[in-house]
Amino acid sequence: TKTIRGSGVESLVVVGAMVDSRKQERARRRVLSHLLYTLDQRQVAHVVLESRHAERDRHDIKAIGGFRNAGTVSRRLVVSHERPHQEPMLWVPDAVAGAAGDHRCGVPICLEMHEGLVEMLDIGTV
Questions:
Q1: pLDDT tens digits, 53-104
Q2: Which stretches of the chain are DSSP H helices?
Q3: Which residues of 52-83 are buried (b: 16+ CB within 10 A; e: fewer)?
Q4: Residue 58 and residue 78: Cα distance in Å, rounded?
Q5: The pairing of beta strand 78-82 with beta strand 11-17
Q6: Are 13 and 35 contacting, i.e. CB atoms less than 8 angstroms apart?
Q7: Which residues pair with 14 in a beta bridge?
Q8: Rounded-to-integer distance, Cα 116 and Cα 8, Å
Q9: What is the 3-state composition of the chain as percent helix, strand, coil, each rounded to the nearest 5?
């Protein structure tokens, strides 16, 4: 947490309450749509997602194509998948998401250490 805070990296955490664990991929698409829309609106040029293996990456790519076709995400936003050993900075979103999850479970200390650098966007039930 101290290393992330010291780097000045800003983070956006999109949170959705999943009501049916059998629909995890659907929930991921809803959260991903909101995340990419928000980043696109903020003029982010490139988003790197952590690879979840080839088949699941293809699900993401198909969903992103749908977001583009619906006009939710512009075509100028580049989205790619990498593995943590290819992109070492992928540990940052894992750590920030963990701090956000702890915060939602009543343990706010780690998220508080990121004060001013983490924005949480709660999209409700997914």
A1: 999 999 999 999 999 999 999 999 999 999 999 998 999 999 999 999 999 8
A2: 2-7, 24-41, 54-70, 91-104, 109-113
A3: eeeeeeeebeebbeebbeeeebeeebebebee
A4: 15
A5: unpaired
A6: no
A7: 121
A8: 10
A9: 50, 20, 30
Predicted TM-score of the model (pTM): 0.91
Among 7, 62, 70, residue whose Cα is nearest residue 29? 62
Residue 124 token pair = 């409700």
Tokens (6 digits) for 107: 């343990």
What's residue 19's pLDDT?
84
> Which token pair is 102?
């702890």
Question: Helices (DSSP H) in 14-90: which residue ranges?
Answer: 24-41, 54-70
Average pLDDT over residues 34-62: 97
Mean of the per-residue pLDDT values of the chain: 93
Residue 1's pLDDT is 85
Tell me the average pLDDT across 102-124. 90
For residue 13, give the amino acid letter.
V
Residues 6+ away with beta carbon under 8 Å from 7: none
CA distance 121 to 85: 28
